[in-house]
Amino acid sequence: MDKHLNRYQMLFTLGFIFMLALAVGAFFAGVEVGSSRTESRYEAKSLRAAAAKTAAAYTQQDLVSFYHTVFSPYREFQSEWLKMESRLEARSSTPSVGQLEQLGELASKKRKEIEAVSLEARGSLLTEARADYLHSLDRFAEAAARQKSAAVGSSPDRFLSALRADKDYKQAAAESLSGQNRYYSAMLAWASSARPAIPKQAELTGTVSLAKWSSSPLAVKNKLVADLLSKRGQMRDYFPQDLAGAVDQLIESGEAAKLGLTSFQDAVELLSGTGAVRSGDFWQIKSRLYSSEMLPQLPFFLPPES
Question: Cα-flanking dihedrals φ and ψ of residue 263, to 5°?
Fold first, then answer.
């Protein structure tokens, strides 16, 4: 009997030890798998964070390269288009099929010019701005082709009304302003990386008091102007910094207070309504008002002789 019990106890003990070994092995295997998965998740999170950081980091060379390969060619087309509209508004010319054909050809030419150079800038803002400008050129070309029939025998006022009601014209203007908005967003991100006190992002939401406007860095002011122009669908021959500078001059001179203006939007309404903003105005006041501001070395921030 004792012999039988001893044998039973021995088998039970061996079975218990075997099961315990399996349990311990499974435990450590689980720990190993869990650690591997945690490390993988951590590595993936780190890679995503690094990618996001890289996407938000713009160098001055990125901004300069975009200016010369995308912004400047587009601006050359836009200037010619706006000159046509300006002459029609002033009634110094009449609608012309030939001029529309030339503008359509110029849009196609500038599109090819922009597409011929690859964009090496890091980050999505500049890539998306480039796409916006390319789409805008396409829409302008289509609007020019469609409105040739409206130009025949039409008065300047009637033609401009038809042109500005054209769906492709509206889309072209919206894409143009979107591209400008993204470009100035990239400039703001660059300024923030160079001077951390400057916010990385700014968006026009609601009314901006003149006190808040005055306390903002120029990079933020430029972005707010780009936002406002985009929301209003207004293409202009001046740059956001020209309008921002005009607002600051209005405040500095004391005229804003005398006129009872309380917001950035009020000041813009007055300046736009009186035609008080012109392309290049920024150059006249940069050294006086913005000598300490963080700005990239882009041609439109510099005097023509530079």
Answer: -135, 160
